[in-house]
Amino acid sequence: MKKNILICLEALNIGGVETFVVNQASVLLSKGHTVVILAKEGLYTEKLKQEGATCIDFTFELGEKLYPDKIKEIQEIIEKYKINEVHINQFPCILSAMPACIFSNVPYIAYSHVGVDNVFDWFMDRFEIYNYMFEVYFNNAYKIITIKEEAKNKLIERFHVPGEKIEIIYNSINYEMVDYIRKEEKNQKTRILLVSRLSNDKKDSLYNGINLFKAYKSRIKEANLMIIGSGEMQSELEEYIKNNNIKDVEFKGPSSNVLEYINNADIVLGLGRCILEAIAMKRLTIILGHKELKGIVTPDNVQSACQGNFAGDNLPTCTIESVVENLNNLDDETIKQIQEGNYYFGKENLNAKINYDNVIQEEVYPQISSGLSELLKYIIKQQEKFDKEKEDLKNQMNTINEKNEKDRKEINEQKERIQILEKEREEIYSSKRWRYTEKISKFLHKKF
């Protein structure tokens, strides 16, 4: 059965989720499905259009409420393109895409591309609504896709998700395409490539990579480092490189074709998606880790590395000195064995043509409680009521002359009323309403 699929994510810029979507969309299109992408335009937009996808420039709002205008817009897109399945890839999309699916009675797949608890904590600490929406989101998806066993167990434990609803699908790559473009050449161990967002959440990883290169270059004078990516840390990193007199480092900015750079590298540094791509391109790869350096990927540890989504959380920590020593001691035959062994593991287990196509089921029918739809509509109505009254009060305050004591008193009364409204809004998402009313209990803990 060919489907009309809507894929939702924040933006089509460089990143692991974005690259996943590009590869998955390519596979789905090759199988004859229609693919519509809902996201901010970015570097991957043209690539997806060339593949045959329809790309709609769209901004998902992230905050403390549902977004009725966005929900309605997505419903109209679902109707226009006759969408019969929605893939929700990132958590900021939940507050608009999930209600649109429920109101349109269209099934959705919930993706959890994260393998660590603190991502959920970040959303739940900042936005009260996510304390309840995560559980609603996961339990009302017809399928949940996550990246590793540990992540699956977290979903079951934290959000009471039935285990049979969750599938583990490793990040994958189109091996047919990689085999077509890959250069087969001797590894000289001199061209080093670091692929990463240059953002604060990658800080330790980035410094691991730069310090590793610094130590390696002290041994291999002709070594050079190319850095692909962009972000707020670039200036800090450039300053660090300058102050430490690290030569032959070049920042190339973001790229929509990382494989081209990997094709011209000997050793690839990073974590996550770029490690998978480097393995498919038969290059030496080093996992930098979120905090601690993890070392070279070999046929002996590639399966464990894969199970940890190539982030290295389940791998032993290495010192810079030991990694440099290991690299320095690799002869041509050993390098070839490592590259070939990693490549064949990937081709057997991480082939997008197989893994991503298996996500799609022939026939899926939504099994969402009417109580959930009614509750979401009620919450939106209450939000609009509170927002209107709050805006009216603010407008009144702007017309009051604060120089007059009587007016000051009125302003304070208006401010107090706004605070009361904010508290009332919080109560919309209170645990009592979501967890203990008869209406919610019918769907929140039901196994669909």
In short, what is this structure?
The chain is an alpha/beta fold and 448 residues long.
Q: What key attributes describe this structure?
A:
single chain, 448 residues, alpha/beta, Rossmann fold, 2 domains, six-stranded mixed beta sheet, disordered C terminus
Question: How would you characterize this protein structure?
Answer:
The chain is of the alpha/beta class and 448 residues long. It has 2 domains: 4-172, Rossmann fold (3-Layer(aba) Sandwich); 176-350, 3-Layer(aba) Sandwich (Rossmann fold). It is 51% helix and 13% strand. Helix 7 (149-159) links the parallel strand 6 and strand 7. Helix 3 crosses helix 4 (94-104) and helix 9 (203-219) crosses helix 14 (320-329). It is globular and about 75 Å long. It starts with a strand and ends with a helix. Residues 431-448 have low confidence and may be disordered.
